[in-house]
Amino acid sequence: MKIFQKEIALPQMNRGFHLITDNIECAVPEMKQLSFGQMQVFIKHTSAGLTINENADPTVREDFESHFNVMVPENQAYYHHTYEGSDDMPAHIKASLLGTSVTVPITDGKLNLGIWQGIYLCEHRNKGGCRKLVITVFGS
Predict the structure, then answer these.
(1) Domains in the chain, please, with CATH?
(2) pLDDT at site 135
(3) DSSP symbols for 46-84
(4) Which residues contact 35 (CB under 8 A, 6 or more apart)?
(5) Percent helix, strand and coil across the chain, each to the nearest 5
(6) Cα separation of 129 and 138, whole Å?
(7) Which family does the record claim for this protein (predicted)?
């Protein structure tokens, strides 16, 4: 059994849903040593999340952003946590809905994602800054 762990910082990205599969794969070249295993990706933030979805058509990511903004709107009278901006509390809710980690199987040294799947950074702040990920890979 081999185990690798790295922390990486993604560059600041605009609010929205961004494919980061390539960033993750490039950060852990040791994955190529594994016949099978798993990769867990964890985001160390409370106002951004991770998910796996469509990697080909960028309108899917646009629709995710539009839907989440309708589902969790800004400037609601019942929000008390407002001192960091109108996008902050909705960002926390959106991040909780999506989650802080994804797990992907590894087969023959590669992520075993479906043909149309990619890992998204879900940035919910207008100016979220760089985001830190902890990537843990284990297998044989």
Answers:
(1) 2-139 (2.60.120.460)
(2) 98
(3) SSEEEEEEESS-HHHHHHHHHHHHHHS-SS-TT----TT
(4) 107, 108, 109, 139, 140
(5) 25, 40, 35
(6) 29
(7) Belongs to the UPF0047 family.
**Average pLDDT for the chain:** 97
Which residues sit opposite 111 in a β-bridge?
Answer: 106
* DSSP secondary structure code for residue 15 in this structure: S
Residue 36: how many CB atoms within 10 A of its CB? 12
C-alpha 27/C-alpha 34 separation (Å) is: 15
Contact criterion met (CB below 8 Å) for 21 and 104 = no
Distance between CA atoms of residues 52 and 62, nearest Å: 15
Q: How confident is the model at residue 27 (pLDDT cuts 50, 70, 90)?
A: very high
Residue 92 and residue 82: Cα distance in Å, rounded? 11
